[in-house]
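User: For my dataset I need records formatted as: sequence, then structure tokens, nothing else. Please produce one.
Assistant:
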Amino acid sequence: ARRRTRKTTTHDTAPMSHACAAARASTTTPTRANARLSQRHRASRAATRGARASASAARRAHFIVARSSSSNAPPPPPSATPEDIDAGDFLSALESFHEDEVQRFEVALKAEDPGVFKGTMDEGDGGGATTGASRVDKLRAERREKRTAVRRAQGDARRASIKANGGGAKSEKLVFLYEEGVDVASEDTVTKCNDAVRLCTSMEEVLMLVKEMRNCGVEPVESTYVAVMLVCRNVGAPERAVQVYDALADAGVSVSSRTFYLAIELALKAGMVRDALRVKDDMQYKMVPIGSRLYVTLLRAVADNDIGKRKGPQERLVRTCRLFEEMLADGVAPPPAAYHILILAAYRAKQYDLAVRTFEEFVDTGVTPSRQTYETVIDAMSKSGLVPQALEVFVSMKKAGLAPRKQSYNALLAACVNAPQPRVEAAFEIFNELRESGDVEPDKNTFALLIDAASKAGRPELAFDAFTQMRESGLEVELSTLNRLIHATGLNAKEDETAVQAGLELYNAMGKLGVQPDVITYGSLISTCAKSRDGKTAIRLFNEMESNGIEPNTIVFNVLINALGRADCGDKAMEYFRMMQERSMSNRDLIPNRETYTTIFDAVLGPGGAESAVAKHALESGDGESFVHSSKVSMLREIYANGVESGVYEDLSSSLSLRDPEAGACTINMNQLSRTEAVVATFVFLQRLSELKVEDLPSALFIYAGKASRKGGAQRRLLAIETVLRAAAIKFQTGDVGAANIVAIKGKHATRWVERNAGTF
């Protein structure tokens, strides 16, 4: 009955901010996923309530409502009077009667036909589920009053028995309970008992006092439970306060807002966020207003802590948005702190667009954001490369009287670096404003961002300008800064003949500055050599790296092979490729990847790469077929076979063995390959084709190059395949099936080519 009348907050119908709606959509994506999550949430809540209800009696017995069966219970009076026995029997009969009465009434309520029209009535009108719940609550209240009266009678009898046998109070704090004429039901007596509880210094002492109070007939009230909760806080056991709250709720004691707030405070202090939210739900059920301050406290707890098995910033963001929606549904105007928490949660979940939209909603309320909110939003915009928006917020922050700090300037510089088109001019304007302000001094990160902006924009001269100003500022030069500069020197190495020398000068300056190079240093230098086609310097740097005890990684091997290939040193490139394969036996991190294979393919065929080499021979009349059968192409096929063994590439033999059940055709998919890989794969395809018997040839062969797109990747891949087939002198046709680019070889043309080339590979 209580569940029927309980005030619930339905997230699907509650008003919510556009930012929260976006968060729900971006983190759980489809609506069905939200529905499943809600169903799981409700099922979990129902199971939790059931488990909590079954365990609450045990907790009360252990904590506050301790029964005489516990190990610390006082022994029964030596001479029990008939009044004691009658009172106990009466109490058991009374409780049993009322339990049966309440259960019968609840069953009757459940049996009511929900389809019967009961008219239009308010919650206060008689009849309906609300009236039924009220009657159940009334019966329980009457039961509590009668039970309290019986316990007081028992307490009076016990006290009289203890006095008759010369006994007294077990605790000096409760001596007044044994004085003549004491009314255990009076507020004054209960207040004295509560004061005695507050003076306790341990939970054991609290248990003893509460037990003696009950034995004397003093029934705990809300203030008693609050006193125990305060002791839990004072002795450093806030988690026990949650048990006290559960005992209070199970005892049917009326709870005020002060107690709710205290229970939530102690639950959060104990890190029990789920229990704090449960107490908040109880407040809503009891129609106790929840203020914005409490919502902010709960929002902060939900945004900072994981709850349950679903962990991570994404899940915390979803829960924060739900609680924010609930606050809106309750008619509570979100304070600035609530918006800031939501923005921060979105930032942590890397939902930068959501953080920006939430900030815009926040500003529309007319409230001036705090400095922390401004800085968080600028940082979120910088991660997305939103330079104009970040500058606009930056200006608004200054208009609000908040002087920008170094963090804000660096965030703006990061926005210039992360922009789709690096804004190097804007970055230097921001840097100049920082210097002119006089209040903020740039740090190492400031200059690093300037160098990155210049490097990404292809302006190495500006990167060196930033480095010069860094040296003039007296900041210590770090390895990361020098690596950035070495990378910048290689940006225009194809056109600038001095690029390698400039990088080597920085490399030599490291020793003078006491900075040791690392694998990134050597990788950047060798990459510059590759662009300048300087294979000798690349090999020398690689040898120096190993002599300095620095292990090369996959990237270093790849750029070295590329440098040797561009320098027309294909044999040397193969040596280092074999070295890489050998070392990968003991170091799994050196296993060649697709980039490695693509690089060695180009290196073997010469400075222009695979496409250039094939096109050159294909254009020379009569030389195409001999090139397809050359030793270089044979080496390429061998390398491709290594890639198949490593799981990098697909075995084309298995593809050629598959046939369309109706037409008997065969399709080879090269959609996922690069242009260089497609060239080598076509060489391998021709070899596998020549090994087939004429009677095993398919009726037609189709090579799928991919779907046409604006980037033109499929078209370039198609041209690479055509070049090889033309060099091999095999007839083919190209066409489009929808948006797909396909090369088609008829069965008769394949047969003639196989008859001419069988056994020649």
